[in-house]
Amino acid sequence: MIIITATVRIRAEHHEEALAFARRHVATSRLEEGCLSHRFFEDPEHDRTLVFFEEWQDQAAIDRHFAQPHSGEFVKAFRAWCEGGIALELHHVSNTNRIELGA
Questions:
Q1: What is the pTM of this model?
Q2: Domain interval for residue 26
């Protein structure tokens, strides 16, 4: 499994537009083969900052994802709307253990 994390700070005048675009992008990406999860959050500590968290089956799935027209449109739009660029990291996971913590 490969986890992608991305952080981007959106200029104020594009914030609402970016949120709507991100919702559409996430929904479309979730339908792709090899996508295990795809979501984003607004960072509560950093104004207008979006954090994306994606889990992909393997590198081939990521390659297919980034080859999709909607992914190219997403990157182009967010580059134009952001302050300071997009910080993207790929985390290669060889083993996962799930632990449930009681209430």
A1: 0.87
A2: 2-92
